[in-house]
Amino acid sequence: MALNRILVIDAGGAHMEEKRKKEKIMKLDNQVVFVSGTNRGIGKAIVDALIKRGVKKVYAAARKIDQSAWKDARVVPVELDITSPQQIQKALARAQDVNVLINNAGSLSGGSVLTATEPDLMRDMQVNYFGTLNMVRAFEPVIEKNGRGSIVNVSSVVGLASMAQAAGYSASKAAIFSASQALRAELKAKNISVHIVFPGPIDTDMARDFDFQKTSPAVAAENIIKGIEAGDEDIFPDPFSVQIGGSWSKDPKAVERSFAAM
Ligand SMILES: NC(=O)c1ccc[n+]([C@@H]2O[C@H](COP(=O)([O-])OP(=O)(O)OC[C@H]3O[C@@H](n4cnc5c(N)ncnc54)[C@H](OP(=O)(O)O)[C@@H]3O)[C@@H](O)[C@H]2O)c1
Q1: What total of structural domains would you count in the chain?
Q2: What would the mean pLDDT of 140-161 be, rounded to a whole number?
Q3: Does 38 fall in a domain?
C-alpha cells in the first residue's frame, strides 16, 4: 500500500458526517436480526426492544436455550456457544435470512494482567475477541447476500482505556474495537455498516460486583437500537459511557488517567 494512502486523514466536515450517516441508516422494523447471549442481561433486553420495534424475526441465541422463554412467535431460539465453530455453522445454516447481526455475548474474568490466571485471560479473548470475530466472519457473506445490513459488536468503555482490575477483559474489548474499525473499512463496499457499542456499568450479572451507578439493561438496549437506527458508528448507550465517550474523543489520555485512579 502506498504511504500517501495511509496518511490521508478523513477530515470531512459535519455535512459529510451527516451524508455518511444517511447512507448507513438502517431502520430495524421488518429486519431479520440475530442476537447472541440472549438468555439474560443486555442481550435479553435487546430482544425485547427489537420485538417492540417491530422486527420481522429475531434469532435469540444462547448457550442454553429455553423454548418457553419468549412468548412472541417472531423469536426463534438458537443454541449457540460463540467459541464453538460447529455451533456457529449450525446457527448460520438456520439463519440464512439475517441482515443484522448483534454480537452481544461476552465474558468477564476479573484480575490484573499481572495476577490473573492464563485460562481467565484466554477465556475473555476466546469469547470477546475470537468468538465475536468468528461470528462476523461466518455471517458476513449471508448479510451481504441478503442486501444491505449491519453488524453490531459490543465492546465496553474499558475497551477505550484499560481498567487494571479487569485488564484481561479490557484487552479483549480493545481487540474487538480494533477489529471492528478494520471491518468497517472493509465492509463499506458491501453495504454493511459496522457499529461498536461501548457500554458503561449496566445492571446485569456481569456488573453485580461493581460499585458504580448502573443503567438498566432495558434503557441500554433501547439506546443501542436508537444508535443503530441513527447510523451511529460508535454507540454510548448509558450516561456513564456518554461522559466517557465525550472525554475520550477529546483527550484519550484523560480517560486512561481517570480509569487508573478508580
Ligand atoms: N454489564 C456491564 O456493565 C457491561 C459493560 C460493558 C460491556 N458489557 C458487555 O455487554 C455484553 C452483555 O453483557 P451483560 O452485561 O448482559 O452480561 P451477562 O448478564 O453476564 O450476560 C452475558 C451473556 O453472554 C453469554 N455468553 C458468555 N459466554 C458465551 C459464549 N461463549 N457463547 C455464547 N454466549 C456466551 C452469557 O450466556 P450464559 O448465561 O450461558 O453464561 C450471557 O447470555 C457483553 O459483551 C459485555 O462484555 C457489559
Answers
A1: 1
A2: 97
A3: no
